[in-house]
C-alpha cells in the first residue's frame, strides 16, 4: 500500500516525523508537492526562484521521484490519492490561518476519496497554541512565553537525511508537471537552496560565529548571524535539529540563539491565537488620520523601497533586500521604524514590500515583527521608542563598512562619517539622495500622534 507524503513547508528528508509516519503507514511513499498557481503568483520573484531551486534539490534527494502537480490542493491531493489508491496523506500540520483552512478543506475532500489526512509535527519545535499559562490562556509577553516554551520541551530529532533515504522507498508516480520558470530579478543573488546547504550553513554557524553571537549579532557589517531564516521558512532544516545541537553547547551565544528561535515560535503562537494580526494592528496606537495617504504615501514608499531616503543605513538595508532577498535583523528594525515613524506610512505597506522581496518572507514572522516595530503587536517596542537612523548606524556599523558596501554613492566617505553625509560638502557624495525628511522633526510628529490617541 502506498501512502502519500505531501511536502509543503518541510522540504527535507532529515528530521521529518511526518515523512516517517507515511513510511510506517504504507511501506512505499509517494512524495508529492502541489504548486498552487495563486500562491506561486503572489509569492514575489525571490521566493519563487528559491522555491524552484529547493524543489529541484528535494527531487534529487528522492532519486527524481518528487511528483509535482499544479492546481488547488483541494482538487489535486484527493485526485492523486485516487490515482494511486492511497488511504493516507501525511503532512506536517500548518498553523497559519490560510494553511489551516486549506488543510481542513483538503481533509474534507479526501474523505470522499476514501483517504485520511494525517498530521504529524509542524514547522515549530512546539506547535503553536500548545504553550499555555497556569490558567490555560496564551502568553501575551515574550519572556514568560520563552520560559514556559523551554519547560514544555520538544521531541528529539527524527532520523537524519541519510537514514531516511535508506528507510523510505519513494515510488515513481509518473508524469510530473514542470516547475514554472522562476527567473531571478536582475541584480539578485540567492543562497544555495536545499537541505544539504542548510545543514552546511548550520554547521558553519556552530563551529564559527555562534561563540560571538551574543555580542555580534546586531552588527550588519559582520557576517555574524546564521542566515538560516530562509531554510527555516521552507523547512529545509527544522528548529528541533538546531535546538538539539544547541543543547550540547554552553555559553551566551547558544543561549541567545535559542532565544531567537523562541521569538520565531512566539510569533507563530501569537498569530495562531490572533489570526487577524496578519493584516490588522493588534493594538492601534495612532489615529488613522495621522498616516500618509494617496500620492504622498506612494512617493514616500517608493523612495524608501528603492533606498533613496538620504539616510545611509536605511538605504543600505533596502538595497541589500533587493540584492540578496534578505536583510540583517537590526537593519530590518531600523528601516521598518523609519517607514512607520519617520514617513508615517502604515506598517502593512512595508510588510507587503518585504513579502515581495524577502526569500524568507513568512507571514507570522514578517507581520508580527512589523507589528513589534510599529508598537501595535504583542510585547512590542513602545511606540515612543523611535529608532534614530544615525545613532543606530554609528552604533551597529561603527566603521561604515555596511553602508559603503550597499550604497556606492557613499563609497568615498571614510569611517563613521558615512552615516551623516549631509554634514560634508555636497562634493563628497554628489550623487547621493538628499534627506527626504528631517528625522528630529518627524519624530516629534510621530510622538504627537501617539499622545493624541492616549
Ligand atoms: C520588520 C521585520 C520583518 C521581518 N520579517 C521576517 C520574515 O518574513 N521571515 C523571517 O524568518 N524573519 C523575519 N524577521 C526576523 C529576523 O529579521 C530574521 O529572522 C533574521 O534577520 C534572519 O537572519 P538570520 O537567519 O541570520 O538570523 P539569526 O540571528 O541567525 O537568528 C537565528 C534564527 O532565529 C530566528 N529569529 C531571529 N530573529 C528573529 C525575530 N526578530 N523574529 C522571529 N524570528 C527570529 C530566525 O528563524 C533566524 O533564522 C523580520 C524582522 C523584522 C524587524
Termini Cα gap: 63 Å
Which whole number gives the mean pLDDT?
96
Computed structural class: alpha/beta
- Uncertain stretches: none
- Ligand catalogue: flavin-adenine dinucleotide
Number of strands: 6
Oligomer: single chain
Count of alpha and pi helical runs? 20
Per the CATH scheme, the topology name of the largest domain is: DNA Cyclobutane Dipyrimidine Photolyase, subunit A, domain 3
The CATH architecture name of the largest domain reads: Orthogonal Bundle
Strand content: 5-15%
In terms of topology, how is this protein built?
Blueprint: E1 2-7, H1 17-26, E2 28-35, H2 37-42, H3 45-61, E3 67-70, H4 73-84, E4 88-91, H5 97-112, E5 116-119, H6 142-152, H7 161-167, E6 169-170, H8 195-207, H9 213-216, H10 229-234, H11 239-246, H12 252-273, H13 294-305, H14 312-324, H15 329-342, H16 347-357, H17 363-374, H18 389-396, H19 401-406, H20 439-453
Parallel strand pairs: 1-2, 1-4, 2-3, 2-6, 4-5
Helix pairs in contact: 4-5, 6-12, 12-17, 14-15, 15-17, 16-17
Bound molecules: flavin-adenine dinucleotide (FAD).
Residues 217, 225-229, 232-233, 260-261, 263-264, 267, 329, 332-333, 336, 354, 358, 360-362, 365-366, 369-370, 373 line the site of flavin-adenine dinucleotide.
Describe the structure concisely.
Helices cover 49% and strands 6% of the residues. It has 454 residues and is α/β, with parallel strands linked by helices.
Structural overview:
This protein is α/β, with parallel strands linked by helices and 454 residues long. The protein folds into 3 domains: 2-122, HUPs (Rossmann fold, 3-Layer(aba) Sandwich); 124-158 and 195-273, Serine Threonine Protein Phosphatase 5, Tetratricopeptide repeat; 288-453, DNA Cyclobutane Dipyrimidine Photolyase, subunit A, domain 3 (Orthogonal Bundle), CATH 1.10.579.10. The protein is built from 20 helices and 6 strands. It has helices spanning 17-26, 37-42, 45-61, 73-84, 97-112, 142-152, 161-167, 195-207, 213-216, 229-234, 239-246, 252-273, 294-305, 312-324, 329-342, 347-357, 363-374, 389-396, 401-406, 439-453, and strands spanning 2-7, 28-35, 67-70, 88-91, 116-119, 169-170. Strands 1, 2, 3, 4, 5 and 6 form a 6-stranded parallel β-sheet that branches. α14 packs across α15 (329-342), α15 (329-342) packs across α17 and α16 (347-357) packs antiparallel against α17. The longest helix is centred in the middle third of the chain and has 22 residues, at 252-273. It starts with a strand and ends with a helix. The structure holds flavin-adenine dinucleotide. Flavin-adenine dinucleotide (FAD) is lined by residues 217, 225-229, 232-233, 260-261, 263-264, 267, 329, 332-333, 336, 354, 358, 360-362, 365-366, 369-370, 373.
